[in-house]
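One-letter codes give the sequence; the fold follows as tokens. An example follows:
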Amino acid sequence: MLIVDAHPSADSLCAALATTYAEQAASEGARVRRLTLRELDFDPILHQGFGGDQPLEPDLVEASDAILASRHLVFVYPTWWGTYPALLKGFLDRVLLPGMAFRFTGPGRWDKLLRGRSARLVVTMDWPVWAHHLMQGAPGRKAMARATLGFCGVNPVRVTELGAVGQADEAQRERFFARVRADARKDARALPRVPEMINDQVLTPMGGRSGG
């Protein structure tokens, strides 16, 4: 299981939710690895598109290997301007490359190279969830679940949406954490039990200059 903390701030609710999910999944016996995007050293701009030659930085090589070694991917991020932060978009642009995540085989045809993996999106937003769907159409959810992960073969992609987080009191925040723990428990129990997945350590931080 690879958990991607995609919030630019270490003091964010998303960072705390990512830790909660990781700890709960590990307590259920899942092999868990953390990937904290703000701690990685990489250029988030795909300067020449898919047709260019832009070598992956060492942190992105490690991240790509971790995605391929995982059976379940978890992305934790806030909703900004209806979708996800530029940090996550840049990471996806650089890592989900032809030959790694998909391969075009002809006009309108492609191989989905990330088949066999499931995903969980843990998404926070300032609006109530119902308003985000009704008034904005949840564009970030569609982009991640369908146009990105689904395009590459990840299925199912389940979504945990937490709304009105900016105005939440302590009781509401605890309900957010309780929901994330419940989803982590369910996801961990659904994983296939195999001898080795990524490494021999639980909660191994990755690519961090200042720790997880």
User: Anything to note?
Assistant: The mean pLDDT is 91. The chain has one domain: 2-190. The first helix runs from residue 13 to 27.
